[in-house]
Amino acid sequence: MLTIGNTTIEVVRGSVLDQDVDVIVNAANTMMRGGGGIDGVIHRAAGDGLLEELRRVAPKGSSTGEAIVTDGHNLKQQYIIHVAGPIYRNYDPDEAARLLAACYSNALQAAEECGLTSIGFCSISTGVYGYPLEEAAPVALVTTKKYFQDSDSTIQRVIFAMFTAREYEVFLQTSKVLF
Q: What is the domain count for the chain?
């Protein structure tokens, strides 16, 4: 766990859907219409209203790294921030890292603009998008740490909720090295 100013950043084992936060971040695709992995799980749990809202607010989808905010619908969280992470094989490593960092920083900025105080992240792009977990964890954690070092944020709590044991171990060990 790391505390920067009024903000605590921690890595936990579990589903992002189970976190007691104002907003969760969905690792979406650029079409913003649901999909596999956590994106599909979030869409199913939130209900049909989520897809209807996304059709209104993002009729043409989004670009990689762009943050789209919706209501939480049937979720216990008030909001969902949808970000499409990079498909790793489609970019050179530096560009992939830049785009992944944009996912995290844009999600934090969107939460801030909504006046939210807590946010839950899953591991963006490390599933079917093929981003190596050992490369993604430092990008996610350093970007988040830097965001709070560079701003006077209203966000008080950031949770990195890692669903699998491997995700959890990699993010936890990386946080111990970086924090």
A: 1
